[in-house]
């Protein structure tokens, strides 16, 4: 595994900045990324529902009882939350796997965009913050599992193919937006190339992309973006 910290400068670029939280899966779809409305956001804004959606994205379709076992919940509670996610368009029944005895559930194809710019102390902001916070918890858990167990449990080829990179730059807001857009474009190309791949030797892999201003540092005044 490669662990790297990079220190470098960036060239000038201009692009407007919009902040979204993205979730993607690798199933075949022509569905565009969905910017969810307030009603759907409130329907998702429950810690267990966020974890259910993340599990279906990471591990693929599952049953209510299977998800209940994963999260230590009752089947009745899990069925209720799955129905709420279905109501708001986040999950759907996987008819190809279902039976008369038990339904299989899958994520609705396509990415999700959650607008994080809402007025402070508003209901919208509270729902958005909860969803983003829970998503971060699930991402951190997967990453920590890899850090703590990867070297001992993974075959060397998997561990050596992985990387942990930290890059520190001084950028304007438009340069940051342009940098993120280019990284997203690279990710999109790989998503399209390997979408729905189920070949022998594959396993779920997660790429975590975070790019953000350091909060306890200050902006140099007088820039074009100011």
Q: What is the arithmetic mean of pLDDT?
A: 84
The N- to C-terminal Cα distance equals 40 Å
The CATH homologous superfamily is called Winged helix-like DNA-binding domain superfamily/Winged helix DNA-binding domain
The class by helix and strand makeup works out as alpha/beta
Uncertain stretches: 5-22
CATH topology call: Arc Repressor Mutant, subunit A
Largest sheet geometry? 3 strands, mixed
Please give the radius of gyration in angstroms.
Answer: 20 Å
Order of helices and strands: EEEHHEHHEEEHHEH
Strand order of the largest sheet: 2-7-3
Shape descriptor reads globular
| CATH uppermost class | Mainly Alpha
Quickly describe the structure.
This protein has 226 residues and is of the alpha/beta class. It is built from 7 helices and 8 strands, in the order βββααβααβββααβα.
What does this entry look like structurally?
The protein has one domain (2-194): Arc Repressor Mutant, subunit A (Orthogonal Bundle). Helices cover 44% and strands 14% of the residues. The chain contains seven helices and eight strands. The protein has helices at 38-44, 47-59, 64-71, 75-87, 123-153, 156-161, 173-194; strands at residues 2-7, 20-23, 34-35, 62-63, 91-93, 104-107, 112-115, 163-168. It has a three-stranded mixed sheet, with no helix packed on it. Strands 4-6-5 form a three-stranded antiparallel sheet. A two-stranded parallel sheet has the order 1-8. α1 (38-44) crosses α5 (123-153), α2 (47-59) packs across α5 and α3 crosses α4. The longest helix has 31 residues, at 123-153. InterPro entries: ArsR-like_HTH, HTH_ArsR_DNA-bd_dom, WH-like_DNA-bd_sf, WH_DNA-bd_sf. This is HTH arsR-type domain-containing protein. GO terms for molecular function: DNA-binding transcription factor activity. Residues 39-123 form the HTH arsR-type domain.
